[in-house]
Amino acid sequence: MSDRAPAGQFIDAAIGLLRRLRDEEADSIAAAGTLLADTVADGGRLFAFGAGHSSLAAQDLVYRAGGLALMNLLAVPGVVGVDVMPAPLGSALERVDGLASAVLDSSPLREGDALLIISLSGRNALPVEMAMNARALGVKVIGVTSVAYASETKSRHASGTYLKDHCDLVLDSKIAVGDAELTHDDIPAPFAPASTVVTSALLQAVMATAATTLADRGIEPPLLRSGNVDGGHDWNARVMEQYRDRIFYRH
C-alpha cells in the first residue's frame, strides 16, 4: 500500500476502472443502449436482475429519477439484497439448479422483452440458467459481468459455462476476481470493493445511450423525474399512465 490515503487510493482505483469502461467498452455500451431503445420502440418491456450485491445495480435502474420508467426489477425471493436471514442463505440460493426456471415461469417476461442480468462472477447456476431460459423464451439478454472470472474460477453450473456464454450482448465490468481494490501489509485480506460503483455507472451509461437513441429517432424516451422537484409527481404520473401496461412495479 502506498503512502497515499486509502480513501484517495480507492477513489483513484474506481476512476481507473471507469476510464477503462469508457475506453474499452464503448462499443458494447452503445450496442446495449441501442438494444434497449429497439425494445422500447417495438413495444417490449425492460427488466433487470441481480443476485446479492449485484442486485444493487439492478435496483438502481428501477423507478429512478432520470431513468427509464419501463425498467422493472425481476426479483427472486431471498436473493435480492442482503435482507434474507441468515445472509449466507442468499448466496446458497444462487447455486440452486432450477430456481431460474421457476422464477421465469411466474414472471411477466415474454418474447420481445429485454433482460439485464447482473452477476459479478457469472459462475453460479442462477444467472447462467436465467440467461439460458430467458433467451429460449425469445427475450434479449444483456449480461453484465466480470469476464475475468471465466478464466480464473470454475463454473458452478452443470454445463461448465458462465453468464457471458448465454447472452446477446456482454458488458465487461473489468472488476478483478475477488472484488477488492486495496491491500495493506497489516491486513490479511484485500478490501474496498468497487463493483457496485463501477457496475452502476456502466449501466447508467447504457441508460443514457438508450434515452438519446430514442430521442434521435423522434421518440420521447419514457423518463422519470425526481419527486422532490416541483411538478415531478405529476410528470411521473403521466408517464406511468401512458406506459401502464409495461410497468409492473406500480401494480
TrEMBL record:
Annotated Gene3D superfamilies: Glucose-6-phosphate isomerase like protein, domain 1
GO biological process, alphabetically ordered: carbohydrate derivative metabolic process
Domain SIS: 36-220
One of the Pfam families matching this protein, by short name: SIS_2
Domain of life according to the entry: Bacteria
MF terms in GO: carbohydrate derivative binding
InterPro entries listed in its UniProt record: RpiR-like_SIS (IPR035472), SIS_dom (IPR001347), SIS_dom_sf (IPR046348), SIS_GmhA/DiaA_subfam (IPR050099), UPF0309 (IPR022951)
HAMAP family the record matches: UPF0309
Family: Belongs to the UPF0309 family.
PANTHER family per record: PHOSPHOHEPTOSE ISOMERASE, SEDOHEPTULOSE 7-PHOSPHATE ISOMERASE / DNAA INITIATOR-ASSOCIATING FACTOR FOR REPLICATION INITIATION
Protein's name in the database: UPF0309 protein HNR57_003818
Organism encoding this protein: Streptomyces paradoxus
